[in-house]
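Dear support,

I submitted the protein below through the web form. The confirmation email said the job was done, but the results page showed an empty box. After a refresh the structure appeared. I'm attaching both so you can tell me whether what I see now is the final result or a partial one.
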Amino acid sequence: MAKKTRREFVQQTMLGAAALLAYPPARVLGANDRVRIGMIGVGGRGQELLKQVMELPKAQVVAIADVYTRRHDEAKQIANGIQTVNDHRRLLDIKDIDAVIVASPLHIHAQHFLDTLAAGKDLYAEKTMTWSIPEAEQCLQAAKISDRIIQIGLQHESSGALADARKWIKDGLLGKVTQVESWMSRNTPHGKGQWVRPVPSDCTATNVDWNAFLNGRPNCPFDANKFINWRLFWEFSGGNVTENMVHQIAWIMSALDLPLPSAAYMSGGVFSEKDGREVPDTIAVTLDFPNDMVVTWQSTFSNSRYGLGERLLGSDGTIEHLAGATDMVSGKSGETTHYFPEKTNRRDGVAITGNSSDQDHMSNWIECVRTRKTPHAPVDIGYRSAVAAHMANLAYRRQQRITLEAAQSAQVQL
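What the results page shows now:
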């Protein structure tokens, strides 16, 4: 398999920086103008985002780009009258577009991220921000020299639970936090693995720009299963760590204002369904952070009993955020955020229930495009959460503990 070194990525970053400086700034919006949107990638997740932005009165979808012609027709059913193109560069050349939503597969995020900034457009980039650590560094540097508004699709950053947790931490209710527990669990019927989607009959080499999808990966014959089910393969995906853990790790890092992890461990494997996937479906991650902190995340695709959640364990109290835990009697699930005092150190402390409302993540981005304020999930948390996720995957694939320094200097397997 071909490899790219950090030097090659740095060289690409310098070229990208030059391209950013060569483009004029985007249009300044007036008070009554709608933000004109283009989308790159309108598969399953992209169509969800398309529906979200279509509901916003201050936004107008102008065009979409996708390498699969089927997606053009599906997008037109959602947004009648939009332009459709195969090549994302043609979309970025449309002067009437102010901002772009990138919802392409993970391994193309960085390319679309950099090209969008170089075209002078504001950006909503789906998580995880990039497929690798060098790409994350490249995108971070490009963002630093750009004046574009960038929101990463880490929706938990707009949650009321995070707002409550931040307030309780700021008020000193937790004391010294040395450990955080987090988890995410799902289940599927026997014989049906998570994420496995049927391959449409029209998913053929004629209807898919396979070379554009490969995005520099070694050339190989068209593979409809890999194109549709790219989440199952390391070449295009980071598995459940970059699909789900990244949301919770970003939430934890934001709540506690954590830097990059100092080391990562990860165990697990393909245990739930032996369906040809490469990425593990059963996972136990441990992340070490500076200043005496350990964060764990566990996940299974064989049991959904406990949904997802986080517990921030402090010397003076605990923050517990639960989402999707099923009540044994009613069968219903819900989301709650609580603070519980540690009577050892806060004898008179009382339990608190969070009541902050969630904010709409997409609406926040559109508003920031208009006001030029910083959105809830800027590039910095996109970068830190991406590095944490990639460190975990590197530790798993190497079957060893990996430090931040080793992860940052690792060659990128393509």
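Response: this is the final, complete result; the empty box was a page-load delay. Residues 379-398 form the longest helix (20 residues).
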